[in-house]
Specification:
The complex is a heterodimer of chains A (231) and B (159). Chain A is of the alpha+beta class and 231 residues long. Chain A has helices spanning 2-24, 126-132, 147-153, 158-161; strands spanning 27-39, 42-46, 54-59, 64-73, 79-91, 94-97, 103-108, 140-142, 189-190, 193-200, 203-213, 220-229. The termini of chain A are far apart. In chain A, 25% of the residues are buried. With 159 residues, chain B is an alpha+beta fold. Chain B has one helix at residues 2-27, and strands at 38-41, 46-48, 52-60, 67-77, 87-96, 104-109, 111-114, 117-125, 129-138, 145-157. The radius of gyration of chain B is 21 Å and the shape is flat. The chains are: A alpha+beta (231), B alpha+beta (159).
Chain lengths: 231, 159
């Protein structure tokens, strides 16, 4: 009988301790979970090419080409990036990194005006707009201090409307009409990469690349591509 | 015989104690949840690295009791490990007893205690209505992928 009482008493104590200790936990808590797909903020797309990831072209010495790339920053703040332009050469069916020697590059974001109806009321394509407004372009040139660059540096307007067999951009001996070179930044080639540090504002803008081949350039198929990396 | 009873007693005691503890903390979570807790503004299902997004939740403190609020936000990715400094979290607590009166604003400071895990601890609460806004931003070069955001809000009262 005594053992039975002890058993009941013990059980009661355990129940009491359990209830009291549970009541001491006086917090309330909620948890919510969300899943989201996060994408890269910046995309590059070459225009008027079969593959938006690069452009391919056959080039001979002295040729000049223009290519346009669409740059989109979907983030809500400016992003500082390093843009690398890579050049490859086609040799026996395979693409190899090209050392960049023999190419002169310049770029200008002013081609973006071609997408503004106010400045392009006729809805011209970017090439036609470029031919019509060569004096709107301020060029970032590379590399600096080069003999040939100096020629192109001072010829930043006329080559755009120059004409050799109808090739847009060719005029090797042009002069700068107003003496304003509009040179803003000089960068350099490094093992086939042309590197430029820039800040990309939110939204979409366009950039035109002016690719000029040295007269001594080996005739071949070349491929230009761009990548963006953190600074 | 005595040993058998003692063993039975200890076993039953352990079972009863466990049942009470578990039922008080997790088996009946409705009794321990924050009243009126709901999401005002969801995070978008698609995000862009480098941008800032808001996550807004609200809860009611029915008796305007004094207490503390702790917030934990865990961010994980399915295939990669979230490193220190890849996300940044800021927050505000907007609290009021009467909607017609000026609300009280408190800045919630978050500390990243491990990669992708942020905590804001011991924020005093005393108002009836409480809106929490979290502003979550990431670095532009964040690895693209599917991220899971787990937000836990805990209230602890003084009495």
């Amino acid at each position: 009988m005594q053992r039975k009482k002890t058993l009941i008493l013990g059980l009661t104590i355990v129940l009491f301790v359990g209830v009291v200790s549970a009541a001491v936990v006086n917090y309330l808590s909620n948890t919510i979970v969300m899943r989201a797909n996060v994408s890269s903020p910046i995309t590059l797309k070459w225009l008027d090419t079969e593959d938006p990831n690069y452009v391919e072209t056959d080039m001979n010495g002295g040729d000049a080409r223009f290519y346009c790339v669409e740059v989109t920053n979907d983030a809500d703040l400016p992003i500082a990036v390093v843009v690398q332009i890579h050049i490859q050469i086609l040799h026996e069916g395979n693409w190899y990194n090209f050392d960049g020697e023999g190419f002169y590059l310049a770029l200008s974001p002013d081609i973006s005006y071609a997408w503004v109806p106010e400045y392009n009321p006729d809805g011209l394509g970017w090439r036609a707009w470029l031919s019509a407004h060569p004096d709107w372009m301020d060029w970032v040139l590379a590399p600096s201090g080069d003999e040939y660059l100096t020629k192109y540096n001072t010829a930043y307007i006329s080559p755009l409307t120059g004409d050799r067999d109808g090739v847009l951009g060719y005029n090797f001996d042009s002069v700068d009409p107003d003496g304003d070179r509009d040179l803003r930044t000089a960068t350099n080639f490094d093992s086939g990469k042309w590197t430029l540090t820039m800040t990309i504002e939110p939204g979409t803008f366009y950039c035109v690349f002016w690719v000029i081949a040295d007269p001594a350039l080996q005739p071949a198929s070349y491929r230009f591509s761009a990548t963006i990396i953190p600074p | 015989m005595l040993r058998r009873r003692t063993f039975t007693f200890a076993f039953i005691s352990l079972i009863v104690f466990t049942i009470y503890q578990v039922s008080a903390t997790s088996m009946t979570p409705l009794d321990r949840r924050i009243q009126g807790f709901h999401v005002i503004k969801k995070l978008p299902e698609t995000m862009v690295a480098g941008s800032t997004y808001e996550w807004e939740v609200s809860f009611v403190n029915p008796k305007s009791e004094e207490g503390w609020m702790n917030i934990t936000l865990k961010i994980k990715e399915e295939k990669t490990t979230v490193s220190f400094g890849e996300f940044h979290v800021q927050g505000t607590l907007e609290a009021y007893d009467n909607p017609s009166r000026q609300p009280q604003h408190t800045t919630l400071t978050f500390t990243e205690i491990s990669g992708g895990t942020f905590q804001s601890l011991q924020t005093p609460i005393e108002k009836r209505f409480n809106n929490i806004t979290l502003r979550i931003s990431s670095v532009p070069n964040l690895m693209p992928g599917t991220y899971t955001f787990t937000l836990t809000i805990t209230l602890q009262y003084k009495d």
